[in-house]
Amino acid sequence: MIQVIDLSHFAGNRPILQGLDFSVEKGDFVLIFGQNGAGKSTLLRILSGLIPAKKGGVLLNGKSIAHYSKKELATLLSFLPQSDEFDLPILVRDILLAGRYPYQSVFKKLSARDHELFAEGVEYFGLGDLLERNMQTLSGGEKKKVLLASAFIQDVPLILLDEPVNFLDPGSTFHFIKMLDSLHRKGKTILLVSHEIQYFFPYANKILALKGGRNCYFGDKTFSDELFQEIYQVSFKQTFVGKREIIFVNEK
Known about the structure:
This protein has helices at residues 40-47, 70-74, 92-98, 112-124, 140-154, 170-185, 197-200, 225-232, and strands spanning 2-11, 14-24, 29-33, 55-60, 63-64, 77-80, 158-162, 189-193, 206-211, 214-220, 236-241, 244-249.
């Protein structure tokens, strides 16, 4: 689905990403982690087509992402930024319906399928009471729920998320992760940036660890305390409660 080829990016002369090479297959759940300044958010913005890479390229379904129109990309992927990046005075209903606009011609009205997906998204994510609310009036957890629902209604195969549980309370975090896992089980491909690796590591099947803009590891998920030590300079431990995998910082 995605092929990243010798990808590098710079801010002036300062390298942000350096020589990244990796491939993401359809149905993968990729957890991307690294310290602040490792280039994680920049990588997502390049993969989403929001900014062009300075060097190298990104192929989406075998075609350079630079050769897609914005409307074409909107039928293939959805990018959920950090909540503080999305604070516009727009009604929740309009945000959700906007997910269907890439499929419309200029004069065409919403189809039966559009209304069906809208209704399914509202019901599945429990947004009936929020439809007439302004996005600026919502809590962080409510905004995240709306944005994830918009990706569901947009009905794209690829979802990119940047720090999706920042500032959420434990209950909102739990429900958000369960909804995201459900979308993955429905066949969506997920690329997710998060410092909260203890939440998402159990759900990922692949991981990408970045350090100083470079790829320290990409591949099938495997627990490696050595890798976490290299990235974060702290030790992690892994345990299981039944079939549930848990990783946590090992305080020595």
